[in-house]
Amino acid sequence: MHPPLRPAAIVAVLLVATVGCSDDDVGGSAVIVTTTAESVTDETSSTTADTTASTPADASESAETTDGRSSSTTSTTTTITPTTTTIPAGPRNPLVAFRTVAMIDSPVDLAWRESSPELFIVSQDGTIEMFDPAAGDEVTVLDITDLTSASGERGLLGLAMGTIDGSDRAYVDYNNGSGDTIIAEYSVLADGTFDAASRRVLMEIDQPYGNHNGGDLAIGPDGMLYIGMGDGGSADDPERRATDLTSLLGKLLRIDPRPSGDSPYGVPADNPFVGAGDGVRGEIWSFGLRNPWKFTFDPATDDLWIADVGQNEFEEVNVVPADAGGITPGRGLSFGWSAFEGTERFNDDVDADGHTAPVLTYDHSDGCSISGGAPYRGAAIPDLVGMYVFSDYCSGTIWALDLPTQRTLVLDSRAGVTSIVAGPDQELYILSPDGTVVTMTAADG
Asked: Of 64, 101, 350, 373, which residue is least crowded by CB atoms under 10 Å?
């Protein structure tokens, strides 16, 4: 299954598809004005070269991905000023190779434990497999197929792992039999298996429609649990939930996963809307999101990257640099949906002021559902360090965004991509709906 995501616009050229849309809600994203790079790839190597791409011709279409994300394509040209980050600048053309390391049914996410080489790979069907890349061993560490079922955009969607009060914990995001989002905690035993008896439900969030469930989880640099929530589904944000601060939908949530009083979790006192009154939810960290299928914190800078699936025309990538004072990025920000799709005005009845623009958008001639990605911080491919590597579910194209130089390089093209996630050594893993889990390595020049 692929997450519902969509990018916005950057001063680079992209061709992409969309992931994570519904049948009635189709969307594409970004138009790139100038980009650099094309790739020639196979299972062993790929190369990149500078190119200039023209803006795609105007067109629109809609489609639904097999994992329930709908998509559409349209072309438009949008230019915005990218946010400044610490990514090294300069013309770089990384040589990248791809190696298959595992085969897992319907992989959608990946996580790991600190000081452990195993990969914990999430299957949308409802299982988590622990895979040892060195030995090739695979063990099912969690099976909740009796609690969820993979259908469209629903199923077991996300996993985050961390140490809380000295104990290893795992947090999962899945849809229950009614389609509602469940956030649950498990203790992780010494052998890596999840203790089923320790299961503790932190949150249950009503989902009014069958799409735009979000599903990604992350332990932030501050030790808090971040939860990506889609806008509730249907098309066009019909109830305008994304900017409604009394709703948890269309938001990035931030909670303390430890019990607090009678509540199974705590609401950090420094969350931006704590104490706002009038039903405003204190769990909200950021808002104005359509379907943030994947988000990540850069381990080198703490910058926050969010890939948000678009509606009919544009997919988008958002980035927020970490505050110099150590504040986790994104606090209180709106990323614009549904006042905007990408950088184009969308719902006229939603206030256009006060939103943070995406750093990149692409339209549906390049894809239809952004699968998200991660900044590369591994050691295997020095020329790729600092670039944001991302893909689109519909096109399967894998790009690397060098934000300071506004260059977008094409690294590879595969038969669909559900997510790109960093492993324990910060090397990137690419998950595809055909079950392949592929890692990127350096190719011989």
From this structure: 101
